[in-house]
Amino acid sequence: MTQELTSPSPARQAPGPGRGPGWWRDAVIYQVYVRSFADSDGDGIGDLQGVRSRLPYLKELGVDAVWLTPFYASPQADGGYDVADYRAVDPLFGRLQDADELIRAAHETGLRVIVDIVPNHTSDQHPWFQDPELARQRYIFRPGKGDSGQLPPNDWESIFGGPAWTRTGRGDWYLHLFAPEQPDLDWENPDVHAEFTAILRFWLDLGVDGFRIDVAHGMVKAAGLPDIGHGRQATLIGSQHLPFFDQDGVHAIHRAWRTLLDGYDGARIGVAEAWAPTPERLALYVRPDELHQAFNFQFLGTGWRADGLREVIDASLAATASVGAPTTWVLSNHDVVRHTTRLGGGLARARAATLLMLALPGSAYLYQGEELGLPEVTDLPDEVRQDPAFFRGAASAGPAPDGTADAGGQDGMRDGCRVPLPWAGDRPPYGFGPGGSWLPQPADWGALSVAAQTGDPDSTLELYRTALALRRTLPGLGDGPMNWRPAPDGVLTFARPGVLCTVNTLPDPVEIPLPGRPLLSSAPVATEDGSALLPGDSCTWWAI
Ligand code: BGC
Q1: Which parts of the chain have pLDDT scores under 70?
Q2: What are phi and psi of 91, to 5 degrees?
Q3: Please, are residues 181 and 143 in contact by the beta-carbon 8 Å criterion?
Q4: pLDDT score for 401
Q5: Could you confirm whether 311 is annotated as catalytic?
Q6: Cα 163 to Cα 203: distance, rounded to the nearest angstrom
Q7: Whose CA is nearest to atom 12 of ligand 1?
Q8: Which atom of ligand 1 is nearest to the CA of 403?
Q9: Fewest 10 Å CB contacts: which of 210, 242, 433, 443?
Q10: pLDDT for res 198
C-alpha cells in the first residue's frame, strides 16, 4: 500500500541546513514523539501537520535538528515501533505528502530532520509476516522443545515480559524480543538487507538528514540461539553480553549503511539506539566507518552523584575519543522516566543536569517537554495506559538497560513520559490540539505550558533557550576539549574553551572561590568578595 505523493516529487531535495559536514558532532537534536507533540485534526493524537505548525517554536528554542519517532503505517501495538509499511504514513499521523512537506518546511526553517528506522522487527501485520512461506524465510522461526514441541525453543524472555517466543497455528515458534506483534527479522537473509537498503534510500531521496536506528544492537543473534540460563536474563541485561544484543555481527550492517549514507550529499547521519554493556562496546558503533552517533545511556542511567557523573563522563569521552567520534549525551526519551522525576531532585536537579549536559563536549538530544520541566506523570489510571510493557508485566527495576523500565515512574512503565505537551491555556488539552489528548494531562500543567513560560526569565523554557543560544555563540562549547578543575566534594568543575562549568550535586549551598563572571545558572548564584555561593543542586556557566 505504498502511498504516492500528490504533487511532482519534491524529493531529492537540497541537503538540509546546518553548519558544515560535521554538523552532527555538536548538534542539539530535539526528539519529537509525534503522537504527543501537537495535534492538528482534533483526534487527540499528535500528527505531522501538528509538528509542522510548531517548527517556529523549535527554531526559536535553538535546536539544530529534530528526530521524529515512527509515523509509518502501523497497528500501533507499540506506539508505531511495529511497522507494517515502511514507506507509508499511518493515517493517524497524516499522509506521505505531509511528511514530505514537513521535511521541506523544516529545511526552510533551518532545521534538519532525522527519522526513526525500525530494522530489528516489523509488525505482525507486515505483508512478509502475513505470508506463511515468506515469513519462514525472513523471520526467526524454530521448532519447539518438549515431546510435542510445546515448549519455546530457548529460554529468552521478551523485553516487555514473558517468553520471547510465540507458537503459531502450524506448531512452530517465532522470536519476538519485544511484543508478539513485533516478530524479529532474520538478518541472515539477504532479502532483509536489500529491503532495508531500499527503505533507507526511499527516505534519503525524500530529503531526510539521517536515521535514528531502533534496537541497533539487536539485529544479529548468536549462532544457535543459545540459552541464557534460567532466570539469568534479568540480572545480565545491561551489564553483559546477551546472545541477542550487541553481537559483533551487527557492525557489518552499520558499515554497509554508512557507505549508503556517505553516497548522499549533505552529511546524512545514523544514530544508534544501542544498549551496549560498556562505553568501549558502545564506541564500536561510532567507528569512522560506522554510524555517526550512539546515545550515551550510561550517562542517562547515572544518578545525581558527583563521582559517578565524573566517572561516566571520563569513560565516555575516552571511549569515543579512541575512535575519533564525539559523545552523544541524553537525559530523557520516550522510554525512560523523565529526568525531572528520575533524578530525585525535582526541577532544580533537572535544570542543573541539563546545563551540565549542554556544557559537555559533543552532541546532545533533548526529549520534547523537558524544556518545560515536565515531570513524569505517575498516576495514570490503568484503563488509559497503552504501553505494551504494562500489559506484559515487564520488570520495573531501574535504571533501564533496555528502555522499558526505570525507577521513579508508575510501575516503571512508559506512558508517564508520553503525555501530550501543554502549549497554552489553563485546562487540558492545553492547546495540544482542537480535541482532547490520547493520555490525560495533569490538572496543574497550565503553569508549565509554553505560553506560560515564554518571556519569564526564571522559567525552564527560557533557561533552555538561553543555554542553546549561548552554545551557538560561544565557540568553545560543543565539540572541543574539556579539563577538570579541582573542586570540593560533591562539586564538579570543568573548563571548556572560554567557559567554566560548576555543578553542585549536594542539596546544600557550597562556597567556592569566584571562578569568573556568571553567564547562566540553573538557580540564582550569589557572588561576593571573591567567592561564589553555589546553590544546592545547581549548575552555573562562568565566562573565564
Ligand atoms: C524503542 C521503544 C520500542 C522498542 C521496540 C526501543 O528501543 O525506543 O520505544 O518499544 O525499541 O521497537
Answers
A1: 1-20, 235, 237-240, 394-407
A2: -55, -25
A3: no
A4: 40
A5: no
A6: 34
A7: 81
A8: 7
A9: 443
A10: 98
Q: Which atom of ligand 1 is nearest to the CA of 78?
A: 10
Return the CATH fold of 23-125+185-223+234-473.
Answer: TIM Barrel (3.20.20)
The residues, ordered by sequence, that sit 6+ positions from 9 with a Cβ below 8 Å of its Cβ are 100
Are 68 and 34 in contact by the 8 Å Cβ rule? The answer is yes
Rounded to the nearest whole angstrom, what is the distance from the C-alpha of residue 273 to the centroid of ligand 1? 9
> Topology of 483-543 in CATH?
Immunoglobulin-like (2.60.40)
387 lines ligand 1 (CB under 6 A): no
Cα–Cα separations (whole angstroms), residue 52 to 98, 302, 341, 430: 9, 34, 29, 18
Distance 242 CA to ligand 1 centre (A): 17
214 as an active site residue: the answer is yes
* Residue from 214, 217, 336 to probe ligand 1 pocket by mutation (most atoms less than 8 Å from CB): 214
- What are 68-120's pLDDT values in tens digits? 999 999 999 999 999 999 999 999 999 999 999 999 999 999 999 999 999 99
CA atoms within 13 A on the CB side of 217: 26
In the sheet that holds 363-367, the strands lie side by side as 293-294, 269-272, 210-213, 112-117, 65-68, 28-32, 363-367, 328-330
Instruction: Give the per-residue pLDDT at 238.
Output: 64
Count the helix, strand and coil residues of the chain and give each as a percent rounded to the nearest 5. Answer: 30, 20, 55
Cα-to-centroid distance, 522 and ligand 1 (Å)? 32
Q: β-strands 499-504, 491-496: how paired?
A: antiparallel
Domain ranges in the chain?
A: 23-125+185-223+234-473, 483-543
Q: Is 34 helix (H, G, I), strand (E, B) or coil?
A: helix
Any ligand 1 atom below 6 A from CB of 116: no
Q: Does this model's pTM top 0.70?
A: yes
Catalytic residue, chosen from 85, 186, 273, 290, is: 273
